[in-house]
Write a structure and sequence with these properties.
3 helices, 96 residues, alpha/beta, 4-stranded parallel beta sheet
Length: 96
């Protein structure tokens, strides 16, 4: 049995929170999206994919994320946030 799920949502601007070296940002830009990434790792940002160097930056905390985004990706991020701070971090991301 095959299932087909069609998701329709506006997704022109994307922020990859925890982007590491920016590979997702690069892939999204190849698809024509306005994609930017942020990470707390200075090493990762410095070693990011060369084609996204101008679209990836270092931040200190969730509160440093600025701008309105159609989609925020936070893959492999929540396990690095203290359990009692996850809800407020998600609310903070949603508010932007």
């Amino acid at each position: 049995m095959k299932f087909l799920i069609k998701i329709t949502m506006k997704m022109e601007s994307v922020k990859d929170f925890g982007c590491a070296k920016g590979f997702m940002v690069h892939a999204l830009r190849l698809l024509g999206k306005e994609a930017f990434g942020v990470d707390v790792s200075e090493y990762a940002v410095e070693k990011c994919h060369p084609k996204v160097k101008d679209y990836v930056s270092k931040i200190e905390a969730v509160e440093d994320i600025k701008g309105g985004w159609d989609l925020i990706i936070a893959k492999d991020v929540l396990e690095h946030i203290q359990k009692d701070e996850i809800l407020s971090a998600l609310k903070s991301l949603r508010a932007r």
